[in-house]
Amino acid sequence: MRTEDVLAAIATGLWRWDNASGTVTLDGEAARLLGLPAEPAVLPEVAVRSRFHPVDWNEINGIVNLAVAEGTLAEARLRIMDVDGRVLRTVRSRSKPVANRTADGTADYELIGTIQEIAEPQPGTTAAHTPITGDWRRSREAFLLDAGRALAEARSTAEVLRVAASLSMPGFSPDGLAVFGVAGDRLSVIGHHGHDPGDEGLFSDMPLDTNYPAAEVVRTGRAIYLPTPEDYKRRFPAAWPLARRFERVSWAFLPLIVAGRTMGAWMAAFKHPASFSPDERSVLTTVARMLAQALQRAVVAESERELTTGLQRSMMPQLGPEIPGMRIAARYVPTGGGLQVGGDWYDMIPLPSGRFALVIGDVQGHDVRAAGLMGQLRIAVRAYASEGHRPDAVLSRASRFLAGLCSSPESDPYQDDGGGRDSDSDFLSPRFATCLYVECDPRTGMLEVARAGHPDPAIRMADGTVLMRPTAGGLPLGIDPDTDYPTTRFTLEPGETMMLCTDGLIETGGHDLDTGWARLRAVLESDAHEHEPAHDPQGPAGHLAPPHLERLADLLVQAVHGPSSHHTTGPLADRREDDIAVVLLCRESVDRGAGTALPHPARPLRRTVLTVAQAEPERIAGARQQIRELLHDWADPDQVDSAVLMVSEMVTNVLTHTDGDALLVAEAVGELGTRRLRVEVADGSDELPHKRQPGEMSSSGRGVLLMEMLADAWGVDPRGEGKSIWFELHEQSKTDADQVF
């Protein structure tokens, strides 16, 4: 009996699919099964494809590609359709891809195999029937979607391995997994699941030429399926004794390929037999591809984190040795552009005079160039300060240095006018930087401040009152190389804390300068940091800081990035997030160590000093604000208004009637409810104020009258050069004030 007769008797046909020419050769039985005349034929690919159900065609196309890649059989179930779109029958196809070369020398393949009709179960019988697009296929697709999403969300190698270990494949879940990585010519285990700790030791460092399945997979880039222990023992006799003790019965080793490069291998081991059907191989191959992509992303992300963390640590300074009588805490939080390092920085610089300097700054931008300029500018400022220059000279030199770094590409005669010019234009575009430089004398607490477009420092007094300390300033660094930076001097009293920060701490979360400062002021005035320990008592870079100061630094950052920040979103919700740098300087009280509760009942002196220069009359508004902040908890709001009015009148008179500057000193002392406010305004003129009777339309001459009406006491004290005008107010509640009148 001929072979063709035997095949026809069991409803089996032969076919040959030439992928290069796009033709299909059928015998008579194969043609009949496809709904064609029962005679041998050579047909174009499109004529045969039209006979398959579209869903099944997509299925077999993937299975064939997998079989070609692995050199295995391609097996699938197919529904045959007639010209009206009705299902004629269901067939099973088994074919073997055979490589060949076309006339032009390119590699291609032919599929040679069989088509066999599957007998459908008769109605009323219990014959099993495996659906083509049934629950298994739907569950497989759902599994792959979930696996892809979970692997895409993994951000580290450990997370990728945990996701891979938790995957529950539909119908054949492995209970042992291992991921092998390649380093040079060595193979090692980078993660495993379902094995005891230490089991990976035997496989942790293997040459790639080892007779082990994972090594062969890496060498060839082709998957290896071992359905039984006999298959394993036959193909890899040297490695079988190592694998036998794990008591698995089926294994799949698949290459991890990214961009055509095999970066490792993935082993899935089963305690229950797995036949590794084409569908199961398709699932395993898809998971291996997703796993390879996830591992590649994780490796890149970890490399970037390691790079940026190292860059950040190298750029962020050591806060230096402990300073007697002074304590420092600092925080740096990179949030811009995802770089983990940005244009913000701070520094502490020992000076030749025995003093030290605190510097905080912010380079324009949130990119790599901003980070690079920040590093260069920080080194330049440190060099200028170490040479012994004064604060104004340090900033002037730093401004010229930055302006020289950020020369415009239009002014560079060596720039190419070709295609490279546009790509470099942003890199060479001008940049500026804000900066605040503070020179501190730790013995006296005297601070000398020079400011270049940066937010003013804030002072937290010993009793918890917080003031924004206005300071003179100039343009940001790098804008005008010839800008002058005037110096402001004031004293940090014992028990007071100064906060320096970049605008990221104020404005992050959609806040502007006003709403952001209100948020931070509430944290600074709170005493929560006095009662809770800091998470890191050593502080950044191993610097020893008191627990309360470290805790305050943590609370300031948490107010911006912690859970509470989501409830205080500012009016500018679309504002881009910015990097944050914050430095806290605390001068210890004479009778206590920083962070210890006050042992005596007397409230500390509340004091502020402010100079208003002839050339800066706009700072009179700052003087009024200083008085309001100093008296923020004063019992009678009318007295606060009176104090503000008198201060405004006194400072304005100095600027109007003299040629010098006005020095404002305000002090509040005593217990709450019975405090005394004393305000002095000194100038260099010897001319004393006179009481006048201004007319109804007069715009001046009421200063002395206001003092007599509003102050509890006032006077003029002549000095060696100039004079000091002062007034006092005694705190009283609103009710007491009403009773007086």
TrEMBL record:
<dbReference type="InterPro" id="IPR036457">
    <property type="entry name" value="PPM-type-like_dom_sf"/>
</dbReference>
<dbReference type="InterPro" id="IPR001932">
    <property type="entry name" value="PPM-type_phosphatase-like_dom"/>
</dbReference>
<dbReference type="Pfam" id="PF13581">
    <property type="entry name" value="HATPase_c_2"/>
</dbReference>
<dbReference type="Pfam" id="PF13185">
    <property type="entry name" value="GAF_2"/>
</dbReference>
<feature type="domain" description="GAF">
    <location>
        <begin position="142"/>
        <end position="305"/>
    </location>
</feature>
<dbReference type="InterPro" id="IPR029016">
    <property type="entry name" value="GAF-like_dom_sf"/>
</dbReference>
<dbReference type="InterPro" id="IPR003594">
    <property type="entry name" value="HATPase_dom"/>
</dbReference>
<protein>
    <submittedName>
        <fullName>Magnesium or manganese-dependent protein phosphatase</fullName>
    </submittedName>
</protein>
<dbReference type="InterPro" id="IPR052016">
    <property type="entry name" value="Bact_Sigma-Reg"/>
</dbReference>
<dbReference type="InterPro" id="IPR036890">
    <property type="entry name" value="HATPase_C_sf"/>
</dbReference>
<dbReference type="InterPro" id="IPR003018">
    <property type="entry name" value="GAF"/>
</dbReference>
<feature type="domain" description="PPM-type phosphatase">
    <location>
        <begin position="323"/>
        <end position="587"/>
    </location>
</feature>
<dbReference type="Pfam" id="PF07228">
    <property type="entry name" value="SpoIIE"/>
</dbReference>
<keyword id="KW-0378">Hydrolase</keyword>
